[in-house]
Write a structure and sequence with these properties.
By secondary structure, the chain is an all-alpha fold. Helix content is 56%, strand content 0%. The longest helix has 60 residues.
Amino acid sequence: MSGILARTAIRTATRTAPRRSRGFAQAVAESENPALKTYLAEEQALASHAAHTSDLWRKISFYVCVPAIAVCCAWVYNVETEHAAHVEHIKHENGGELPETPAYDYLNRRGKPFPWGMNSLFFNPHANKNMEDA
């Protein structure tokens, strides 16, 4: 019981004690504050560095990345053109059709047909063997 009374007395004393009002810091002129001068100099250096760095990456993007992408596009176009010509050559040798793909036992095994048929959901007649005919 005495603990409760002591705790209540402490709470009441702290609540009714006069509170000091917070004072305001006095303003110091910018020319007299060396920490402010240092901070502003660092901010200026950071802004200058950011401007130079962003300019550098803009130049890298335009003068390195864009030509590299163009070269890659040209290379891929040439490779795909050669591939298409090769496929057309094979078709020409076989009477206008691609030769039949060998029927290996380990390919296209199904325990049961798909609900939509024997072909996969992404069946492409130009790239996949038609399992309806097999």
